[in-house]
Amino acid sequence: MPRRTLALIVGLVLAGAVQVVPATAAVRQTAECQGDWLPATPTSEQVMAGEVQFLDLPPVKIGKRIDWNRSPYGNRSWDMVFSSLRWVGRLVADYETSGKEAYLSRATELIKSWVESNPRRGSRASRYAWQEHPIALRAPVLVCLSRHVKASWLTASMVDHGRELADPAKYEKGHNHGLDQDIALLRLGCRSGHKEWADLAIRRMTGTIRLDVDSQGALQEQAPRYGIYVYERLKVGMESIKDCGRKVPADIAKRWESLENYITHATQPNGFMVPIGDGAADVRPAGFDHPKQTVKVFKAGYVFGRTKWDDPEASYYSIRFGPGQKFHGHEDHLGVTYFAQGRDILVEAGFHSYERTGYRYWTMSPEAHNVPVVAGKPFRNRTPTSLVASNIKPDRQSYKLTDKAYGVPRYRSVLVDHDNPLMAVLDTAPGAQVRGYWHLDPALTPVSTASGRVVVKDKTGWKATVLQLSMPGCKPVTGQSVVRARTNPYQGWISPSYMRKVPASVIVSPAAKSLLTLTVPGTGDADVTCTASRVTVKTGDTTTSFRYSASGTLA
């Protein structure tokens, strides 16, 4: 036995009765330590240097002796990830692939320190030590370490984690946290021989996926980017079932495959997912095949449409409806986004963070989305919205939606034309007045605002026009305002990525009985005329027209 290996074993035994399985010339790689379950950062080199980095925040020096209660940024997500110990699992995985015993030694030291500092149900435990999600993310790290280290404290902690995960009071059914709990309990059950834990985990996983992913493949958590997370974690779950010598239930495999359809439809022509709900604008799916269908209505509350696939210049739009807000959703019902000619035009405020701040709560509010607000009426959160009509043709699609989020019916009709690109939106609330919010991409700057018309352009000189007309009568709206970077109350911001916000222009219309908003890409001089039942838009040599009815329908 090499002298350095003997010294390592002696040192660990003296430190805490730890038996390390001696490393051979090639360390055996294990299913519990390899795979897609570990984060890419921090790297093992960073951890060995006493440094960790999470969530794109600056690196933090943690030193040799760890303070498990530290919270360098006062950031809930950072604190949770720190307590999850997944970053320590990276050391063990890299030990298996590199044979570097120092990685295993440090991983053992860190995990033992955590176990001693955070007794189950002990007053000394850190804030996130025994919360349901950190438990689920940490348990596989313990299982991985147990493949190379035998110690009573490690075995006891695995039992503690198993008991917590099996507790029905802590189970997050129908949610991505529940899936993580299932994977963790399955790994613990299979590794420790607790068959009842493994059986419970597979039963739960099957039930959770039936709730979280519907028959169309749509995730029920109201943020498309979590579709990627569930897709990737469900893959880990299925691999864990196979590693345990079990057969993957057909429902799990079927729902996993169906998620691809949802993820691809929710991806814009520029390759980034449309940032709906708690989904940042910088999420870029990779490796997913797309269907032939270019327009898809998901009963979970989404319409996704595009002119064609594999063309970054294609037009694309999204519309929100469906069940009331829950999980990672925002109060975005009736909201639309619009992408055309290779550019974002109408966007949403997006996802900033999970910190409990005024800005976070504003990003979740109706005013942070492209929605109609009923003037003078209080908003009723978690109100469902119905899609009551749709007409889908290759070159044009129209929809009508309604709800009572303000105590009275509000209606929104949306028409998207692809031959001569435009989006038309008609908002009404019988017996009341509506006000519209239209959030423009930060790359667009208003160059003129007059007579209900806002013309914007980007740095290349490309232009788009947003026109607002009071209906019936086709009268230009007066009294529009363009708000930018306001803080009291918040308005005029976009979050392009985690913990970032940048100024962006928002068009706020005055209240009107019936408000028609036209977004016309590629021009600053669109000309609009109306008759009693038809609206015509001329841009250069092209003309587009659509029908308008007094009942609030576009076609």
TrEMBL record:
<keyword id="KW-0732">Signal</keyword>
<protein>
    <recommendedName>
        <fullName>Heparin-sulfate lyase N-terminal domain-containing protein</fullName>
    </recommendedName>
</protein>
<dbReference type="Pfam" id="PF07940">
    <property type="entry name" value="Hepar_II_III_C"/>
</dbReference>
<feature type="domain" description="Heparin-sulfate lyase N-terminal">
    <location>
        <begin position="58"/>
        <end position="298"/>
    </location>
</feature>
<dbReference type="Pfam" id="PF16889">
    <property type="entry name" value="Hepar_II_III_N"/>
</dbReference>
<keyword id="KW-0574">Periplasm</keyword>
<feature type="signal peptide">
    <location>
        <begin position="1"/>
        <end position="25"/>
    </location>
</feature>
<keyword id="KW-0456">Lyase</keyword>
<dbReference type="GO" id="GO:0016829">
    <property type="term" value="F:lyase activity"/>
</dbReference>
<feature type="domain" description="Heparinase II/III-like C-terminal">
    <location>
        <begin position="324"/>
        <end position="507"/>
    </location>
</feature>
<dbReference type="InterPro" id="IPR008929">
    <property type="entry name" value="Chondroitin_lyas"/>
</dbReference>
<dbReference type="InterPro" id="IPR031680">
    <property type="entry name" value="Hepar_II_III_N"/>
</dbReference>
<dbReference type="InterPro" id="IPR012480">
    <property type="entry name" value="Hepar_II_III_C"/>
</dbReference>
<dbReference type="GO" id="GO:0042597">
    <property type="term" value="C:periplasmic space"/>
</dbReference>
